[in-house]
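>> received
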Amino acid sequence: MAKASRKRKEPGSNADGAAEFGRLSLEQFLPYRLSVLANTVSRDVARMYDERFGLSVPEWRVMAVLARYEALSAVEVAGRTAMDKVRVSRAVARLLRAGVVQRATDRTDRRRSELRLSARGIAIHAQIVPLALSVERELLSVLSAEECRSLDLLLAKLQARAEEIEGMGP
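>> returned
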């Protein structure tokens, strides 16, 4: 009788044979794990942004991107934050009402409007950055410097591959 070949189970993988029968070990499924981690961290950070500054996570992301790249259209903000246009539009509308963001018509292309942080937005951003970096430091404190470098490299590789897969289409 021939021996059935078995795949060796890789750490963090679902290669335990469950997939053969249409089952998935959700706790080991990388997209699920990344989502849970992101949601856990985002909830903690969102609580801080809301309690101290009255901001949602999408609003903070818009602010962070505008602080980094200055004048951007809403479509460009959506692209740089990986948020959908509706979420960006809602965040921008609220930030405009709060006086945190300003909108102006692009001088070279009158059809395009540019978003920028207002003086108030710049001041709020300056207060949030040290807090956000503190949360990041606390989260990464369980990793060695080498593990942090590896994590950065691995995340970049996974992001690049995810973008390749996304570009392949269905």
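>> Helices lie at 30-53, 57-69, 74-81, 85-97, 119-140, 145-168.
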